Backbone:
């Protein structure tokens, strides 16, 4: 009598998704791959395998691997923005008025908050780089221009991208008199270049062996140098 016991386990049931959810599932799987190995680790086949769908299903949302990597790059950039926002919230809360009685203290408090926000933008950027190097590398695996630097797909919870958060912090420095308006144009490119350079040296260059405390101190020293130079 033939055995009724199957020779092998049945294939796993394929996940089903509502409209729009598959794209998010694919991006989530791709983000995990990027976290593990940077942009080179992202492949359509592995992303669809992790999402539990056939490879062809991905093509309804991403034309090819380049489109998928671009989508992951923007999503990773949004994670950078979220980390920067978190750092800004904590820094400005510490620098702001302690209570309602001092809420109208004026320029001194406004300047302290503006300075704290500017420093937090750089601190959050570096913190993300050293804690999420795979995603950081992926965030900057981008087209050869600034087309998507202000796209909402790279924005944090407040609706601003990392580039826009830096610009807003610099604008606050101008408004509070800490940065002369004549020196504001192009300042974001100078500040960004310096902080990004340090971040890359820490995760891919000769500074990758320094301790977390040394990385923090180096970041604060650099941000202070940028602030004085502006």
Residues:
């Amino acid at each position: 009598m033939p055995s009724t016991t199957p020779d092998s386990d049945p294939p796993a049931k394929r996940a089903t998704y509502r409209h729009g959810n598959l794209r998010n599932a694919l991006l989530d799987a791709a983000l995990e791959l990027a976290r593990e190995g940077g942009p080179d680790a992202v492949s359509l086949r592995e992303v669809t395998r992790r999402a539990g769908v056939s490879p062809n299903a991905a093509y309804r949302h991403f034309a090819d691997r380049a489109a998928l990597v671009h989508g992951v790059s923007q999503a990773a950039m949004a994670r950078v923005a979220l980390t920067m926002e978190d750092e800004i919230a904590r820094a400005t809360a510490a620098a702001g008025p302690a209570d309602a009685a001092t809420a109208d203290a004026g320029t001194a408090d406004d300047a302290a908050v503006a300075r704290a926000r500017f420093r937090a933008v750089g601190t959050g950027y570096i913190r993300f780089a050293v804690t999420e190097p795979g995603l950081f590398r992926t965030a900057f695996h981008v087209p050869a221009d600034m087309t998507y630097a202000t796209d909402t797909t790279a924005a944090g919870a407040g609706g601003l991208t990392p580039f826009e958060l830096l610009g807003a912090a610099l604008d606050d420095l101008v408004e509070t008199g800490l940065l002369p308006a004549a020196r504001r144009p192009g300042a974001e490119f100078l500040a960004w270049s310096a902080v990004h350079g340090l971040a890359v040296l820490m995760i891919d260059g000769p500074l990758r062996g320094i301790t977390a405390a040394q990385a923090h101190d180096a970041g604060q020293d650099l941000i202070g140098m940028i602030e004085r130079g502006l």
Summary: Residues 1-13, 98-103 have pLDDT under 50 and may be disordered. The CA atoms of residues 108 and 154 lie 33 Å apart. The domain at 77-229 is CATH 1.10.357 (Tetracycline Repressor; domain 2). The chain is about 60% helix and 0% strand.
